[in-house]
Amino acid sequence: MSLGRRAALFCHLLNSLASRRLPVNSLQAVVRVTRVAPRRRALSSGRPAPTPSSSCKRRSPGMMSAADQDAAGDTSETPLSVELRGTMADIVRAMMSQTQTAEDSDSLLRGSVGLLNALRSGANSMMPPAGEAGGDETGVDADSEQDTKRVKCADASSSSPHDELVSAAQSAISSLERLIDHLASQSRSKYKSSGKIWKALKAVVGDSFGPADDTYERGAVALLAAAALLAVRGQSDSLKMIGSALISGENSRVFEGCPAARSLARSVLLALLGRYANGDAVCLQVVSKLASESGLGRCGDGDEADEDLSLAVASVVNASFGGRVDDLSDQLSKDTVAPLIVLASLVKPWDQIEADRVVRVACVMDLYYSAEALCDAAVESSSRGVGGNGASVARLATRALVDTSLEYRCYRRADSFAAKYYDHCGAERYAASRFLHAQDTIAKVVRQRALQIVDKQVLRVDEAVDKVTADLAGSNAKWNSNELRVLNEDDCVDLGDMSDSIRQYTLRKLRGSGQDDFAVRLSKIWKMEYHVNPQQLAREIEQRKITYLQWDDPGCPGYTEGDCQSLPAPELISEPPDLTNKFRELIGGSDSLGFDCEFGEGLAGIALLQLSTVKESLLVDVPALIKTAEGCESLERTVGKLFSGATHVKHVLGFGCKDDIRRLRTYSWFPEEHRLRFKDIRTLIVECDPDIGGKRGMHLGLSRSCEIYLGKKLDKNEQCSDWLARPLTIEQREYAALDAWACASIYHEMRQRKATK
């Protein structure tokens, strides 16, 4: 008898012994026999014996080693320990108790075993035969094959259908593990192999669980058996990957197509949660994914809560989250906390758990996404009236989320959460979060000298103050500072003082960073006093002229020769006749033209369109022109023709203009996509010099491009200012015109450099 067949017989014998639950010592004796035989055979034949170093790294308690598995041959399964087999048999019995009759149960089990065997065969088919993979022997004699069949038949006749299902599930999972190991060994790159492994797992699972309607219930039983086995076996990376492939959105159709399958899933979940509550090892990630994909928790308006499942989840959550919140981060892992929160979000046991405490634990462990999911579930319950205290739970949970974010100085998160849950967490938290987020952002951008963002943050605070003021007045309520006890006294600002405080804070930060010139410009806009040393201010202004392009620099649109005063920045064009005449003058003597757009807060289109040649610029007030039919017609005759290639201008040039074009296409007068004619300067620059701006120029901006081709950077201080304001400031108009002029000038410089080569 060949070595492979002999090892296979020992493994099947081990399964038979395990199914009868013999003492562990007996099982260990059998395992010792299977380990010694290959060693003796190798020594007698002169070939190297298998070593533990060649075995699979994945060894769970109660499982055979991978070296023993390899010696057993590819067609054998890795036996379960007596304890795990008993546990799985109990889970399967609990699941199958939901079926109508014993005959239905046996038939269903046999069909599910067939699906799992197909899954095992699919995995084995993607691996080379034992001989090609370097096995010990490839020969098969008829006598040994008949002996193997007799052992299989004897094993099958002596085991119950429940044990057959467990064995089939274990065989399928073992084959998938071997497939993972095989594919991982074929690639030197960890990242490439993981993608290849995932595709292979999805293909095998997809082929095994077909879309036929008559397989829904059988597929559910097979999936549940495999999921339960994955949950009790351990938490290795391979098992988690197999679980994700098996319990996926594609396979959730077996639960959607068979309502009875949900009751089967419920019984499995109760069994697994009970095992975890008793202190046994259970992979909660598998449990939470199974609960999500099987549809538990998706109740209609008239559905009642599942009390047994709610109590089971609540008992596990409460037992895990007991003690001081700050101490739990050392006692629990994210792999435990995140799945528990998913289960609570699905089952919604609001009467049995402290949702606000769970949220705080999640935030302390930096699981803000999970905390947000729990708040979403609480808000949904409140809106649908699920549970007697749904509104109270939503209020407590969302406030805990915002307060903890503020306490840990995660101001951006706090601002986002307070805006999302405004109706539940309160106006005070919303305004305070917006104010502190603006302060934090302004401090960062001032240090980085990204001053174009400062004014936008101040405007966001003004909008929040206006909203809260109107809401408080409409509800006859007053500002309650006691709601902000989590804040320090220095951070707590009354609603009426926020707009003025954020401006003073901005000017202080600008003064501290030595950027008095920008502070002076803002103080004029805000009509606030700002005292500065005139000599210091003059030095800063001169330095900016050296560093950044100015409206009146040589070659720029405002430049005039001699001592003459520079040309003024263009005014906005808001009348149709002016647009027609000015546009005709602009394109008269040039075959290339640059464009740019400025956006407005909450505006789907654009707030301003800039067009420029290397000598002259236009500022088109699109919001004003589209108010009339005549204005839309003038835009179509000018801008529309320009972008459709219907003028003599051959090169319409923007910079990183994908978003500009997307917004322009929202207007009916703008050409359809297939008629558009324009070029992206950034793409042209990368084509000429691929080393500029990183991969595909993704890190290349217009300011840096101006420095490369025009000698100076482009000042972006006005980029995020209020472009919907009318009239625009002189600084805004100069900045807008230079943006479009820069596109035309860079292209002109590129053509000249190319011509001189």
List keywords for this structure.
757 residues, 3% strand, six-stranded mixed beta sheet, mainly alpha
Reconstruct the topology from this structure.
Elements: H1 3-19, H2 24-45, H3 66-72, H4 82-96, H5 102-125, H6 142-158, H7 161-185, H8 190-208, H9 216-233, H10 237-246, H11 253-256, H12 260-277, H13 284-293, H14 307-320, H15 325-331, H16 334-347, H17 355-364, H18 368-384, H19 390-407, H20 411-420, H21 422-425, H22 427-448, H23 454-474, H24 498-512, H25 516-526, H26 534-547, E1 572-573, H27 576-586, E2 592-598, E3 608-612, E4 617-620, H28 622-625, H29 629-643, E5 651-654, H30 658-664, E6 679-680, H31 681-688, H32 702-710, H33 730-756
Parallel strand pairs: 1-4, 2-5, 5-6
Antiparallel strand pairs: 2-3, 3-4
Helix pairs in contact: 1-2, 1-6, 2-3, 4-7, 4-9, 4-12, 5-7, 5-8, 5-9, 7-8, 7-9, 8-10, 9-10, 9-12, 9-13, 12-14, 13-16, 14-16, 15-17, 16-18, 17-18, 17-19, 18-19, 19-20, 20-22, 22-23, 22-24, 23-24, 24-25, 27-29, 32-33
